[in-house]
Write a structure and sequence with these properties.
Layout lengths: L4 H8 L19 E4 L8 E3 L4 E6 L2 E6 L4 E7 L8 E7 L4 E6 L2 E5 L5 E6 L4 E6 L4 E5 L4 E6 L6 E7 H4 L6 E8 L2 E7 L5 E7 L5 E3 L16 E4 L4 E5 L5 E5 L7 E6 L4 E6 L6 E7 L3 E6 L1
Antiparallel strand pairs: 1-24, 2-3, 3-4, 4-5, 6-7, 7-8, 8-9, 10-11, 11-12, 12-13, 14-15, 15-16, 16-17, 18-19, 19-20, 20-21, 22-23, 23-24
């Protein structure tokens, strides 16, 4: 569910956007809407050409943005009977990568689905930089760092849950990389979330996030992440809403709720200037596109 993070972040470094400049999306009309019933944190990602791919009820649907015109829909059942757990766009091969059970598949514009990489365990979330692919297994039981640029595909490092999480943390739901950082949505023992940022080489914790409280006794397990840059992260928390987490000031992290309901998010860049210009927000019943 992501763009080429390294490439996009280089464009974002020139932006002056801060958390106060993103007004609440609930107060604005979306540019366009696509109704898709019965969604709950469906994996999705955008490429560099204003296409959005989403996994929805055993099908992959490719939309053209900003209109949400459906370009095609294809069943995954001939290839896998398991759910798709995550999607990212892999610019090195100009294709989408889909994780399902213990396999990563490639999916190209000609609608072909091919086995890309076999893994050792059930895949929970995937992300990559210009150098490494990161694979998170079984709600954070371990994270692997791979070099996929070589023909041999070298496993560089493995970090176990105990090396990444605090004693009473429950697990990791979503990982996303940007520049030299990797962000993780961490489920705490009281069912609240926390966004921690790690170094992609050493996996040392760079910043420990503040607890994002679950109100009204809710204990949802959505917890999806998308980076603006290495200090600002969008966090979709289902019924709790969409947050912009700003960790620029190490002494005072900011947490702005910009939408009441969001199950997943994807930032879209302008194909002319390479800057983020809009956001797709997924709710339980629709996809909506907003300017930012």
């Amino acid at each position: 569910m992501e763009n080429n993070i390294d490439e996009l972040s280089s464009h974002l470094s020139t932006l002056t956007t801060n958390s106060n400049e993103i007004s609440k999306l609930d107060h604005r009309l979306p540019l366009s809407t696509s109704l898709l019933p019965s969604m709950s944190s469906c994996p999705m990602a955008a490429d560099n050409y204003n296409h959005l791919l989403i996994y929805h009820h055993q099908k992959l649907i490719l939309f053209q943005l900003p209109t949400f015109e459906i370009l095609f829909s294809i069943s995954i059942l001939p290839f896998t009977e398991c759910q798709i757990s995550d999607i990212c766009f892999y610019t090195i091969s100009n294709c989408f990568l889909l994780s399902s059970a213990n396999t990563i598949y490639s999916f190209s514009s000609n609608k072909s689905i091919d086995t890309f990489h076999q893994c050792s365990n059930t895949i929970w979330s995937i992300t990559y930089t210009s150098t490494f692919m990161f694979i998170c297994y079984l709600f954070g039981s371990s994270i692997e760092q791979w070099n996929f640029h070589s023909n041999d595909r070298i496993l560089m490092n493995t970090w176990l849950k105990e090396q990444l999480l605090e004693r009473f943390d429950m697990g990791i739901n979503c990982i996303r990389a940007v520049d030299q950082s990797i962000g993780m949505t961490i489920k705490e023992r009281n069912f609240s979330w926390r966004i921690d940022i790690f170094d992609i080489i050493t996996m040392n914790r760079l910043r420990r996030g503040q607890t994002i409280q679950q109100e009204n006794g809710l204990s949802n397990w959505i917890g999806n992440l998308f980076p603006f840059d290495q200090y600002r992260w969008l966090f979709a928390d289902g019924d709790e809403g969409l947050f912009l987490i700003d960790q620029t000031d190490e002494k005072h992290y900011k947490e702005n709720n910009i939408m009441k309901l969001a199950c997943n998010i994807c930032l879209i860049r302008d194909i002319n200037n390479g800057q983020y210009s809009s956001i797709v927000v997924q709710s339980y019943e629709a996809l909506q596109l907003y300017n930012i």
